[in-house]
């Protein structure tokens, strides 16, 4: 027997067998319900005696969250076609994945299972987790992997299309093949789409619009967030569609995300914008990025919200232009990437792929500090690739999030522009070129709004001039840009920044790539009724 104190100060006892394997432990659970000290079997015991505890079913995707320290949430429950066994609030339960009785976690139930359908649509915790596969207790044993245990009821949950997820459960692993692609014929329910959309928002916050890279983009237009960031960051093989969710409208989804505390919204000139992204939110901090539907290294364009051409016609473009960020390892990082065999056909990595490489390296060389899993030990490849020379002798470990931040800084950024319906452009080093919108005085008090840089996004300046002529009821024109071959600017009479911005965003250019300069020294007059402000 051994005594322990958990990271939150809870005391307990661990009981070992003659081989040194932890088989039982005593612990007190705090959370939605407070329990007395309870005796729990470990996963090792449950793998030998799988009928010891009643079972709660969830997906392997949800299990990843449990391993990272989360409790099992109500939306993560999977209800077999025959219903759940009769269990009471406070019962000790095993958590398993469909197809096997091999327990993944042990915890305490927070509700009576006879009420399972009354909690459908609810949020909150279903099981308070006391112990999981891959935690420190498991590591003190033989570190076996969960066995596949087929029992009397596993057929009720494996591979059936009748599983009833509560409150929009995450998709079960039965929907995906070994590469993460969703099998053809599997339909996504509206409740599942709700979860996919919320996870896509967290994916974007964790990997693309993180605290380091998004500060200069806020406030961000809601449509831009959805089309340019969330849709390309859905799971492989699944196309995100707000209309197929229970929300139906983007504004309703975003308000739900705001209510959860993930974002804060702001209305700007009648359009919804994301004011802040709450990166410190627990669900974002603990979020484990997944493989997305985007192609690796720019080998093919990502799935887009639309494949319509953005350049023709007067109605404006339908699909969002995609700006894909690609990273290449610096010379100092090549040994680290090579050590784990990380390579892509193009030589480029997405941000989440780069994070995955570092995590793979950390796991391979067991660099996690066992006394503080947040801290990562620094070996020679990590020091050479991510530290400044003067830091080599001063630092022996670094927080995981800071280490990932260093990785993003040390890799070389490339961007690739993908226009719907056209072949993707070649990746170019650095950030994409902004479209310049400048208001300037001409001939005394007259004001012109000029747009330059459309060629980078394959947008026809003449088509833009035609649209602005109608929108603003003003004269427009197209002029060659001196000193730039095949480059043209568009001008429209009056202070037309709002109209120009709206048109270009409609044609697919992300709002953060519109650079506005006012050389008139005056604030624009309020526009209305289609008349230009002069």
UniProtKB/TrEMBL annotation:
Cross-referenced Gene3D superfamilies: 3.10.400.20, SUI1-like domain (3.30.780.10), SWIB/MDM2 domain (1.10.245.10)
CDD domains tied to this protein: eIF2D_C, PUA_eIF2d-like
Residues annotated as domain SUI1: 435-508
GO biological process, any: formation of translation preinitiation complex
InterPro entries: EIF2D, eIF2D_SUI1, PUA-like_sf, PUA_eIF2d-like, SUI1, SUI1_dom_sf, SWIB_eIF2D, SWIB_MDM2_dom_sf
One term of GO molecular function: translation initiation factor activity
Basic and acidic residues bias locations: 140-156, 172-185
Pfam families documented for this protein: PUA_elF2D, SUI1, SWIB_eIF2D, WHD_eIF2D
Similarity comment: family membership: Belongs to the eIF2D family.
Designated name of the protein: Eukaryotic translation initiation factor 2D
Organism of this sequence: Coemansia interrupta
